[in-house]
Design goal:
By secondary structure, chain A is of the alpha/beta class. Chain A has 14 helices and 24 strands. By secondary structure, chain B is of the alpha+beta class. Chain B has helices spanning 85-90, 166-175, 193-200, 225-238, 253-263, 273-287, 331-346, 420-435, and strands spanning 4-7, 17-23, 30-31, 36-41, 46-50, 55-60, 67-69, 73-78, 243-251, 293-295, 300-302, 308-310, 312-314, 317-319, 322-323, 360-364, 383-397, 400-414. The radius of gyration of chain B is 25 Å and the shape is globular. The chains are: A alpha/beta, B alpha+beta.
Amino acid sequence: MARSFDVVVVGSGPGGYVGAIRAAQLGLSVAAVEDDRPGGVCLNWGCIPTKALLRNAEVVHLVEHAERFGIKVDNVRADYAEAIKRSRGVADRMAKGVEFLFRKNKITLFPGTGALKSKTTVEVQGASGTETLEGRAIILATGSQPRSLPGVTIDEKTVISSNGAVRNEARPASLVVIGAGAVGMEFADVYAAYGTKVTVLEALDRVLPVEDPESSALVARLFGRRGITIKTGVKVSAVRAGGPGAVVETGEGRIEAEQVLMAVGRGARTEGIGLEGLGIELERGFVKVSPTMETSVKGVYSIGDMAGAPLLAHKAMAEGVVAAEAIAGRSPRPLDYSNVPSCTYCRPQVASIGLSEARARDNGREVTIGKFPFTASGKAVALGDTDGFVKVIADKASGEILGVHIVGPEATEIIHEFAVGRTLEATVEEIVHTIHAHPTLSEAALEATLAALGQAIHM
Amino acid sequence: MAVSRVVMPKLSEQMETGKIIKWLKQEGERVQSGDILAEVETDKADVEMEAFGSGVLRKVLIAAGGQVPVGTLIGVIAEPDDDITAVVSEAGGGAPVAAAPAAAPAAPADRPAAVPPQPRGEDHAARTPAPAAGPTAPARPAAVGTAAAAPPAPPPEEAGRVKASPLARKIAAQSGVDLRLVQGSGPGGRVVRRDVEAVSTGAARPAAVAAVAAGEEFEDRPLSQMRAAIARRMPLSKAPVPHFYVSSEVAMDRGWALREELNGLEGQPKISVNDLVVRACALALRQHPGVNASFQGEAIRVFHRAHIGIAVALEDGLITPVLRDADAKSLAQIATEARDLAERARQRKLRATEMSGATFSISNLGMFDVTDFSAIINPPEGAILAVGTVRRIPVVTDTGVGVGRRMVLTLSCDHRVMDGAMGARFLQDVKQLIEEPLRLLV
């Protein structure tokens, strides 16, 4: 006997659970299907637990450098297993939060794996059997999973992905990280803080390749200073067992380490959920969607990682809202994909929005650049955290904020001033006319914008 | 007792200025909160304005006929012994305002009759748009003198409040686009960058509000709010929207017969030819979502519901009330609702929500014996159907020549949204639905 709902959401990661809650807010009856815990990778195995680990790494760093603040600390012992335990506790708490929000919004959770049987039917294979759900509309939000290199199997023991890294209480003495994107750099930071000898390999010519080259260069330099080896432009040809655990063959010789962390990206989870049967179209491995997140099959929506880049939780959440509102008959404003902030939470933090300097120039615009280092920020000096800068790229004629790149303390918070500004189509003048509290790190945003106008005060 | 300021209310989303048609309370008269103070003409409808305070209408600052921006102080309600000089002087010195023309004794001969009253606000936002600040304005009407202490008059493009993003303002200034001519696609009709860019590639001229003149050879009639709105909106369609047109002749014999049969039934609403067209379009839009669509700069918005605007001619313009979810309504429902909307449109009694949100429009000039015509798309809609009269003409039949009823439909399409074949297929389906009219009943 099928149970009927207005909306069936398959997957309850950040896209799915936000979409489910928004749909419920709009008066729709909602079922959510989840094969893990509510909250998906983000809350359980990704964003949230890694932020807990990074905070541990930061505390380790602070304690080790407490003498700079005139504080003597002896016998420091940082237990990595305890860091993982704390991280699990944080993730548990957040997942429980989603369960609470589901109850509050009267969303029925169906544990199990969901697959489309028709454009209105989802079959859930759960521990206690099979259940059939009917939905006037379906939202697919099955997310993504770590990818590997051809011929390399992730066993989560020697060759691990973020899934293993976030669970393993044992820390290797040495680690090769393959891929210097956000995931690779964040784990490199955590492991190095606890004493692992970390080597980061990147096929492209710089770390954090999606960021502005200036951001990449500074992060690489600061990581290097902390004893993390960074090798860019390196092609990995094979990973095999040997040495202390694994041997990584590269064009520039072999590297041995106890473990290898595969961080070469994530692929959409589109298999086994019945896409083929309905003829739902894919595009380069991702589900093809309309601006209101509808797939090629009417009434079936797809959001989040499975629906295409950027693979970011906050983009998935925003898409969940759009899909829910479209289903409820609203006319949601489609996402502006050019205005999604990108954040990496390693130390120093890296955040950006809009175009890189090179891209802005490629567009044929005459641009003006303003840059302000945190060394000139009173607040950053007081914090003892002065590595980094704010860089503002603006259109010379109109003052449009084309792109902003921040490296340094709380970069991932400061970026939102520019996100709001760009959403409102503010120009550099509106930022400059906004009074920024003193002393704050956000003043660097003001100063960098002033610098773009040639008017920086504190530089 | 508190002194209540009476300001020009914002009566619709797009409303920027309002004109006082008449005051229903006179200076010195006692008013209760909720009493109707005045009738106000907006660009869409005439609306009654309520009092939000009780007391005596101590001062009328804008006389009947005066047109002012939303938010402008137009009157003061207070108790007889309250001191209202501060409030009144805030409005620009408190000089009593006569009806507009009389306030311009020294006006030159070429601009006498209907100069709207001068703004009395101290800030730019409270000033009336363009009228008196015409580009040449050699001799300002005397009333300006009372505002001598105020900052210099803003240039026309700054006058009046236009909701626009800072970036849109800058680009507009750089490309010479008058923001008041731009229809905003942002939240709440806010003008954003893409709107300005869309217009700047088209022909956007400043909305020079012509000096009102008169003489033996001609007279200039001031624009009604509605005529001004039409004048502002239509170039926004015709210039930037690349129109193309497809026409088709529809055999109306069966539709006519069906309509007569339906109208012979007791207790059924009378069905007009236009109702048949509305119903046919609604059904066809469901099959052709690409026509039920709007160009959004970086995307084409395809609507899932068919809200059909039905143009209604008024004495001094036209208005397009919206029949919502037309595709989900029966012919009888459409007939009843369309008649109600048209009647209230003529009485100017439509609510703001009934005047916006159409995804497609229909304009019918059949009652004027127009054979065929083409209509201008009402942005941001993607298409509009122009309906001609039903004529009896000789038609070729299998056996020779007979008499048939025919009607010409012309679809105007936004080429950015659709192509000829798409428009033609839609029209073909509309034609088929009307020619096989039983389809309209199921």
